[in-house]
Amino acid sequence: MFGDIRRIVVKVPLNVWFIFGGLGMPALGGHQIAGNVGAVLYMTPLSIGVASSTLVARTLGAKRFDEARALGRHGIALACGLACVYGVVVFALRPLIVAGYTPNPAVVAAAMPLVAIVTFYHFFDALQITTAFVLRAHKVAIVPTAIYAVALWGVGLGGGYLLGFDVGGAVPASLTGARGFWIANAASLMLAVYLRRVGKRESGGAPQ
């Protein structure tokens, strides 16, 4: 399952990277900076997710179900709490962070709003990846993979293309270009989290 999810998560930014070539070098450079910042931030919730999955699986194997649910919740809460802290710090320091990547003023101007979006996007990224790993420990695999495929490819990539290139001709200027892709990507993660919660209610509650 997680090979599938990682391929979905990785291939979307790679495809967007090729699409950004049509938006010019400053937009491409800004996207690369934002993507790198997001990837670095992602390492913490990914690690927490792996650790949580291991602990939850071990306690489930020992038939300590209440402890397993508590561990799952604590892992998700820790990842989300750190994501909030990281988001505030990166948002406050983004001029210094972006300046550390490039002195080019055009690229800096393109990267600043994208990194700001990443600080918001990171919370939902942390929430979805740790939740997915906890679900893995409970052997819930197919539904999360399907949700991520629809959300990340449909809303993230498809919606990003519609916004970024103003396909309908009615998109506000503030949502076009590289910002449109990153906003759609953030929306796709929010949708993935929402659909998972709806699925949990419909199924009577996922064991986490």
From TrEMBL:
<feature type="transmembrane region" description="Helical">
    <location>
        <begin position="39"/>
        <end position="60"/>
    </location>
</feature>
<dbReference type="Pfam" id="PF01554">
    <property type="entry name" value="MatE"/>
</dbReference>
<dbReference type="InterPro" id="IPR002528">
    <property type="entry name" value="MATE_fam"/>
</dbReference>
<feature type="transmembrane region" description="Helical">
    <location>
        <begin position="12"/>
        <end position="33"/>
    </location>
</feature>
<protein>
    <submittedName>
        <fullName>Multidrug resistance protein NorM, putative</fullName>
    </submittedName>
</protein>
<keyword id="KW-0813">Transport</keyword>
<feature type="transmembrane region" description="Helical">
    <location>
        <begin position="105"/>
        <end position="124"/>
    </location>
</feature>
<keyword id="KW-0472">Membrane</keyword>
<feature type="transmembrane region" description="Helical">
    <location>
        <begin position="176"/>
        <end position="195"/>
    </location>
</feature>
<feature type="transmembrane region" description="Helical">
    <location>
        <begin position="72"/>
        <end position="93"/>
    </location>
</feature>
<dbReference type="InterPro" id="IPR050222">
    <property type="entry name" value="MATE_MdtK"/>
</dbReference>
<feature type="transmembrane region" description="Helical">
    <location>
        <begin position="145"/>
        <end position="164"/>
    </location>
</feature>
<keyword id="KW-1133">Transmembrane helix</keyword>
<keyword id="KW-0812">Transmembrane</keyword>
